[in-house]
């Protein structure tokens, strides 16, 4: 940044303006980790990248505060979401096996109930994902303001910015690191693709026309033929019975794979949306706090400049030779 400002002041060919968020992080690392390793910056760095002992292995490893907060926030949001009364049943929904279908009194009725349960689960999930993650994030942020410092948890941002009175230089570096972490984590999530993968599971039970039009980008979770196929497999007739109900067993195997994969991908999709939303909300707060600290440091720089000029003027006045 200093080199860029020198080029700008001298009117020389100007490099692309560096991003203060990147240069700040890089400069802190150099001042703290490379010789002569300035003590102040080394303490700041050690606060941001503490070494923590693993409870099981007892090995010490660096655990960056920004990563700790991001992980704790995502874990808290997911745990709170799934602990909601309506979500508990979806979270605890168990898998099935072929015997639960082939040995049941009525294959078609069993499949109909299972499909009804999946439809209900997905409908409830979609409704909850609309606003629940945002509510969880906002409630966590507001509730922390009403707690004492000793009550702040790892998912409270205040614990990293206020607790133990960190230096503003450390807080600003934390925010820059956090911003980068949240952007990278959010970019690694693709909830839309997970939703499409969930919908595609039903392709095996769609008719040819519907399958052809929805194969690549299905827009709904649809199993138009599953009841008809279950009925056909169940009513195989005498020949099918003599052959060991192979048709029924084949359908049961397909349905078990589809059902178990569906409940797993529903949870994966929901967790991805939760993370995507809370990371976006946290990033918006982080960007605003960075803006505030940028203004704070600009004011400090301006005040320092005024004080330096005042000191120089006072020195000149005091040491000005007196006239005889």
Order of helices and strands: HHHEEHHHHHHHHHHH
Given as residue ranges, the uncertain stretches (5+ residues, pLDDT < 50) are: none
Morphology call: elongated
In which range does the helix fraction lie? Answer: over 70%
Oligomer: single chain
Count up the helices. 14
β content, as a range?
A: under 5%
**C-alpha-based Rg, rounded:** 30 Å
Strands of the biggest beta sheet: in what spatial order? 1-2
Mean pLDDT: 86
Provide an overview of this structure:
It contains 14 helices and two strands; from the N terminus they run αααββααααααααααα. It has a two-stranded antiparallel sheet. By secondary structure, it is mainly α. The longest helix has 74 residues, at 246-319. The protein has helices at 2-10, 20-33, 39-48, 65-82, 85-92, 99-102, 107-145, 158-161, 168-187, 191-200, 208-214, 226-234, 237-242, 246-319, and strands at residues 51-53, 60-62.
Q: What's this entry about, in short?
A:
The chain is mainly α. It has helices at about 1-10, 20-35, 40-50, 65-80, 85-90, 100, 105-145, 160, 170-185, 190-200, 210-215, 225-235, 235-240, 245-320; strands at about 50-55, 60.
Features:
324 residues, mainly alpha, two-stranded antiparallel sheet, 14 helices, 2 strands
